Here is the input.
Amino acid sequence: MEIVALLRQYIRTKWLARRFSTREQLERWQSAQVQTMLRRILPDSAFYRERLGDLDPADWRKLEPIDKKLMMANFDELNTRGIKKEDAFRVALKAEVTRDFAPQLDGVTVGLSSGTSGNRGLFLVGREEQAKWAGTILAKALPGPLWAEHRIAFFLRANSNLYTAVNRRRIRFSFFDLQKPLQEHLLTLNEYQPTVLVAPASMLRLLAAEQKKRVLRISSAGLLFLRLMRSRNIRCVS
Here is the structure.
């Protein structure tokens, strides 16, 4: 079922993506998506039932925006899986300490935001959502077709089942922990020979410097170095 959702999302993103010629068309589509979401989650989200009240989902623009503080304050009533904030934080924080990001809560992946705003937030992702996310990412990021072989090196502060959902028979995903020493990564990269690198710009600069010194020897390194010199904000190269 998950592979079907992945393939469907890949095709939709790659070849069937909507094109809008006017702002009005975009806003109509957005409104329809919000209404569909509200009708789907209202039976299971006490927070949204109370927030919507007597309003019709079509009048959703009358609702006040939700920020992270309000979301976290109402986490238990907002999510549709009945997951408690205390339990979600426990799982997510333990994963960050142990660096084991596989555990889930009732089949749901739990993760933490980086907390750069000073207020760490939680996110929950179900299996079908993971598959759809993976299909979207593969359609947008892969330099070649889905059926070709790809080796993706992902440099992140924390891993997640969400990211490893992209692992398939001909697509390999490898998590590179930003908390580990650079020299350790160089040895692994030289062995792994990634076709795609995804990392913060600061890490890409370090890797480009090691490639220039011929310490890093990967097939995508030349392209990495050239593109890096053109853009300080580059995130993904192949």
In short: The chain has eleven helices and six strands.
